[in-house]
Amino acid sequence: MADAVAAVADAPLVVVGGGDGTLGGAAGALLAAGSTAALGILALGTRNHLAGELDVPADLGAAARLIAGGGRRRIDVGRVNGRHFVNNASIGLYPALVERRDALKAAGLPKWLANLPAAGSALARLRHHRLRLHLDGERRSIRTPLLFVGNNRYLLERRRLGQRARLDEGVLSVFAVGPRSRLGLAGLALRTVIGRADAQADYAALAAVPAFTVRIHGEDIAVALDGEVTRLAGPLRFECLAGALEVAA
């Protein structure tokens, strides 16, 4: 995807079909190329969070008409150590779950079914990561099985859980899960994979900041960016690129 987008980065409009991980990769390729192209979205992924928050229709004909209509807006993009994300990034339990789920998918299991044994495997190998955060002018040490970083503020209200009020506030929202038993985390893992996590009960909000740094133990760590897992060397420098991406919306 990065190569395909880079090849057409001098166009005024680049339309990409896929899910959030694909769109995050496409956005990163445009920004890396210094492109001024607008990103058009065809929602062809599993959850399509970004498309939904931009009111891009799931129907492809309606989405094409929206893109051709010329409406544009600018949104923020998250970045960590040169890698971009449009929705969120996470460290700990969720990347471990995704890695195991992808392995099961490669073995032939449907994605929805692979989530269940993947959650069990991630919990069996559960780690509570010791992280040192430098954010909001303070240094803070935490011990957590899951650190979540949202591109803009994620809402805590149950009816809008997992959504954002704005995509252009210029901040990252930082949440951490407190240490807890495997049984408690089993419930969290299952709620997370089916989109039913309760932010107020499951996460502690740490800050909403334009940038912060995470220092890790070891040379590198698995990080999920819009549901796609990569390994990044520490320290991790997270930042919000305010208004960096123009989208058809």
Structure, described:
By secondary structure, the protein is an alpha+beta fold. The chain folds into two domains: 2-77, 3-Layer(aba) Sandwich (Rossmann fold), CATH 3.40.50.10330; 88-240, Sandwich (Tumour Suppressor Smad4). 31% of the residues lie in helices and 36% in strands. It has eight helices and 14 strands. The chain has helices spanning 2-7, 20-32, 49-53, 60-68, 93-106, 111-124, 182-193, 199-202; strands spanning 13-18, 38-43, 72-80, 83-85, 88-92, 129-135, 138-144, 146-151, 172-176, 204-209, 211-215, 220-225, 228-233, 236-248. The strands form three sheets. A six-stranded antiparallel sheet has the order 4-3-14-11-6-7, covered by helices on one side. Helix 5 crosses helix 6 (111-124). The longest helix has 14 residues, at 93-106. The chain is globular. The protein starts with a helix and ends with a strand. The mean pLDDT is 87.
